[in-house]
Amino acid sequence: MDSRIPNDRLFDLYKIAIDEYRFEVKLGWDRAMYYLIFNSAVVSVATALLKLENPPRVYLFISAIYLVGLGTSLIGIQAVRKSHEYYRRTVVKKTMIEDLLGLTTPQQGYSGLTLAIGTTSGHGDLIKILHDTDLWVGRPLRRSSVTFWITGVLGLLAVINIVGAGIAGHMFFRPPTKQA
Asked: How many Å apart are CA 96 and CA 98, to the nearest integer?
């Protein structure tokens, strides 16, 4: 029995794979922006409240706001990483279909270029993508990637939230003296 899929069927699957790839890129970006904006707002609001003269119990509330920010920063880091994994898995599927369509074969007269879509430098790792898929999908984020820096900013926001919660907790136990 011939298990070869006809090219017209493969091409339809390729269109779906490209759409899924675009969807994962957009969804990943939207998630990252949501977590960055939300956590920046949490830090801003909590810090503004911290600057006001408050009764001691309000500092517990402010500390709780910072702790919510900490939690969402950590969730955000995981969500961005998971989104990037999903993105990479769509790249694997897209690359496999490109290979079956013959699009990964270097074109004569074009310095080894192929017809495969290679948006990022990682897409060029055809051998790793097709033959060492789990390692390629699970590799660490590159320091030059936007995803790496977004997770870094979310990590920084997590640290700021920890410090803010500590300061607010300290102010609960030792309220600032009122200036005359």
From this structure: 5
- Comparing CA positions, the residue from 166, 124, 161 lying closest to residue 142 is 124
DSSP label of 106: P
Q: pTM (2 decimals)?
A: 0.86
Instruction: Report pLDDT for 15.
Output: 96
CA 139 vs CA 49, 88, 136: distances in Å: 41, 10, 5
The Cα 83–Cα 90 span in angstroms is: 11
For residue 52, what is the DSSP state? S
Q: Which structural domain, as residue segments, surrounds residue 101?
A: 7-173
Torsion of CA 163, 165, 170, 173, to 10 degrees: -170
Structural domains counted in the chain: 1
